[in-house]
Amino acid sequence: MSKLALRVKITPEFERVSRIVSTLGVHTVCEQALCPNIMECWGSGTATFMVMGDVCTRGCRFCYVKSGKPDPLDPSEPLKVALAVKRMRLRYVTITSVDRDDLPDGGASHIARVVREIKRLNPGTLVEALIPDFQGDENAVRRVVDSGVDVLAHNIETVRRLTRLVRDRRAGYDQSLRVLSLAKEAKPGLVTKSSILLGFGETFDEVVEAMRDLRRVGVDILVLSQYLRPSPKHLPVKKMYTLEEFRELEEKAYSLGFSYVLAHPLARTSYKAWEAYMAALGGSRGGGAP
Amino acid sequence: MERAVSEVKVPQDIWPRRGDWKGRVVTVFKRPGDKVSAGEAVAEIEIEKAILSIESPVSGIVEDVRVSVGDEVRPGDVLLTVREV
After folding, report:
1. SS3 A220
2. What is A12-282's CATH superfamily?
3. Contacts of residue B72 in chain A, CB cutoff 8 Å?
4. Chain A interface, mutation test: which of B49, B55, B74, most A Cβ atoms within 10 Å?
5. Domain ranges, residue B75
6. Is the reported ipTM for this assembly greater than 0.90?
């Protein structure tokens, strides 16, 4: 199977971002998930923060983030992240997190605090929250929506049939759709977003069904990307999609009414996020490939 | 005057706080005695998610190649050394 070739490029800008995240003690999903885009993103001064620690209570079979018993929340984390955003001078930031099934509200209040602190120190910055499912807790979803977040993202990750195989047993296809639906109901004008990873063995029709389901709950932005196995312990890649296949799925997605579709092997939820948001706001069709 | 010798390593900084990945050497472009320019690819390492192209940070003559195709490597491992010119 052919693999994507990456040129290792550690630039001064990459090193600047690296210094900021390490000196402030904030986590990034770029590192924790071995994201192949890290050199490009950090090299252009952006990063995606991962809050509530670097240990997830769930163990999805595609994800490289460590699984286990997490540490207590760091009450100073909202300020640390907000300061990192300020130092990086970000116009758009994505906040994602590990799952925290050990916390009564799944960490929703903490995420909301992070969003508010970013907004307080960086009034012009747009904030996207890529949230867990909070076990479908409506109040938890509402808490994040009410924080003033500009984009609410939650990933269904795969098609209905493969959800049990790909995701932790506590996750659910319908539960994830419910989270996205709850967010839209709580604030109808809010931009919502979801991602599907391709390559687990899903069929074209199953992907289209997932897209329809996402549209049914009002999702505005869709990200389609290639699953890349992070280690031999994770699920194997069943199929590497060609750029033509990505284009075909992108066309289909637009025909179903998404405001913006990002379809590319290396697209990730936070990739080109500012462009996606602008296109979703304007209701215009953007360019899909990064 | 003795010229400095630089080590070309498997990068540790790509994912700064995740040093627990490993890879396999799939290509070595240089042999001892070959000329190399700064920024020139000297080896390729296959990891699960991608193939990383490793470049020499300096120009010079390759002195010692420490790995062979098929070797398992981890961040920080030395791939080869270059005597700077």
Report:
1. coil
2. Aldolase class I (3.20.20.70)
3. none
4. B49
5. 5-84
6. no
